[in-house]
Amino acid sequence: MTTPGDSQGILLPGFPSPFQAFVALTIDDPTSLRPWLRLLALTIADSKAVEARKKEWKRTSQVRPVAGPLLSAIAFTASGLGKLGLDSTLLGSVRFPLQLRARAEEIDGAVLPDDLAHPDHWLCGGSYSGTDIMLIIAGDERDQVTTRIAGLLRSAPRGIRVAHLDLGEKLVRDGSPIEHFGYADGISNASSLPGPKDPAPGTVEDVTIKRSDLPSDAESWANDGVLATFRRLDQDVAAFMRYCERAARDARGQGIEISAEEIGARLVGRWRSGTPLALSPDSDIALARDGNNAFDFQDDPEGIKTPVRAHIREESDRQNPTRPRMIRRGISFGSAYPARGPRGLLFLAFQPSLDIDLENQPRRNNALLGCSPRSWAFYGRDRSGAQRRFEHRIEERFVTPRSGLYLFFPTKQGLQNMLLERSVQ
Ligand code: HEM
Fold first, then answer.
1. HEC sequence for 339-402
2. How large a percentage of the chain has pLDDT more than 70?
3. Distance between CA atoms of 81 and 125, rounded to whole angstroms?
4. Which of 109, 159, 229, 361 minimizes the number of CB atoms within 10 Å of its CB?
5. Which of 405, 410, 415 lies closest to 102, judged by CA?
6. What's the pLDDT at 182?
7. For residues 318 and 376, what is the distance between their CA atoms, to the nearest angstrom?
8. Mean of the pLDDT values across residues 80-91?
9. Does ligand 1 come within 6 angstroms of the Cβ of 316?
10. Confidence grade of residue 358 (pLDDT, cut at 50, 70, 90)
11. Domain boundaries of the chain, sorted by first residue
12. Is the dihedral angle over the CA atoms 56, 60, 62, 66 positive or is it negative?
């Protein structure tokens, strides 16, 4: 059983830091890897350290932001484990050794070879850029994070290089996190939904690999570790807005009184403020943040309030308290629209298994995330006030996957054990 001092703090409670760099490393020559990783291992933040930082961060950010210590996490891909002489098939997941690119078409849909969403063009995890290790360095200031990365790379032995680097930056509106389409984020997390529908908060044990599921040769390094999915998902805010306008226009052409704002809320399942359509289908009223999670869709089988294909409804039906839990730990990257440059979400989700379709459920048809043309249906009122169903086709792509990796996060003890001397492959 994991102790709070042992599991990586990025899992629970999760890094509070506004800047988080995801540094994908390739190991060309593993000979001098271990001594460097041993030093790095000393800097990995455990749950206790992150909890303390989180408390301090909440306290000081209200008064004046004080740059605290950096928080770091480390994860390995199957090839990274291989380079340490460890067998990734022992983790018990069929999909882990194959990696996410093997499922790209199943998840994202068929994309043409010259499409940026194709794994051949991914920035990491794709067919041509090998990632062995993912380092996550989090801090309160951008410079703090970039200086640390530069220092780490200077200290790295030859044979280790950066395959790709993404710098995440929390997007905030009125002091609360949002994502680039403008919707409140970080409200619900399958690990700890407050409210009557899921009163039992999640624990580390909900997602970690159990000793009883491991062969004895993997116990020392894999026990209580956790598998995760990482994706860089680029967001096209203009395309999202254009679509909402078009759908509203088309619906109005059919006598349904609906605005672009209402279409956006129906795509997400929540208003921009985070208020769920399930609780307030007609307008964006402010609810207490806790109240935002006290709902499910049982009284709305047809999707009159919350479309069946709305993002939050597709991701979680909120009806099964014993469902496998997923802990989301993403952060936005890029400047807010309409500034130039790429923007999106660095999506990181911990999960009990990669072999059940949880957050990896095929999403090629997902109304918000799908890559290919897709259809969905929503309801709106006509002039008489009657609810009318409207089917619409989405040709636009709002979200483009640019990376995809399956990662293994060992515990701090597991990491030490991984780094014990043994011959590298
Ligand atoms: C750029 C891509 C994405 C955007 C813009 C996005 C946006 C959102 C928003 C606005 C919420 C509601 C706020 C909250 O509950 O924290 C949400 C919830 C959620 N999202 Fe996403 N999301 C994205 C990608 C994903 C992906 C790839 C997955 C899973 C594979 C996912 C799974 C979830 C889940 C499980 C919830 C909580 C559902 C609930 O319990 O109510 N999201 N997302």
1. CCCCCEEEEEEEECCCCCCCCCCCCCCCCCCCCCCEEEEEEEEECCCCEEEEEEEECCCCEEEC
2. 89
3. 15
4. 361
5. 405
6. 98
7. 21
8. 95
9. yes
10. low
11. 19-233+403-418, 236-319+357-400
12. negative
C-beta of 270 in contact with ligand 1 (< 6 A): yes
- Per-residue pLDDT at 360 exceeds 50: no
At 179, list the tokens. 């994502």
Residue located nearest, by CA, to atom 41 of ligand 1? 312
Closest CA to 178 of 406, 341, 330, 374: 330
Report the distance separating Cα 228 and Cα 61, nearest Å: 29
pLDDT for residue 125 is more than 80: yes
Question: Is residue 73 predicted with pLDDT exceeding 50?
Answer: yes
Residue 44 bridge partners (DSSP): 72
Q: pLDDT for 184-241, tens place per residue? A: 998 887 544 444 334 345 677 778 898 999 999 899 999 999 999 999 999 999 999 9
Does the beta carbon of 190 lie inside 6 Å of ligand 1? yes
Classify residue 77 as exposed, middle or buried by CB count within 10 Å of its CB (0-12, 13-18, 19+): buried
Q: Is 312 in the pocket of ligand 1 (CB under 6 A)?
A: yes
Q: Which residues contact 66 (CB under 8 A, 6 or more apart)?
A: 60, 140
Q: Cα–Cα distance between 270 and 284 in angstroms, integer? A: 9
Helix (H, G, I), strand (E, B) or coil at 85: coil
* DSSP H/E element including 191: none
* Run of H or E residues at 155: helix 142-155
Kindly report the backbone phi and psi dihedral angles of residue 76, in degrees, each rounded to the nearest multiple of 5, phi listed first: -125, 145
Q: Residue 344 CA: which ligand 1 atom is closest?
A: 1
| CB of 160 shorter than 6 A to ligand 1 | no
Q: What average pLDDT score do residues 151-160 get? A: 94
What confidence tens digit (pLDDT) does each residue in 364-382 have? 778 999 898 999 999 999 9
CA R_g for the chain:
22
Between CA 274 and CA 314, with CA 277 as vertex, the angle to 5 degrees is 90
pLDDT band, residue 267 (cuts 50/70/90): very high
Q: What is the mean pLDDT of residues 338-354?
A: 94
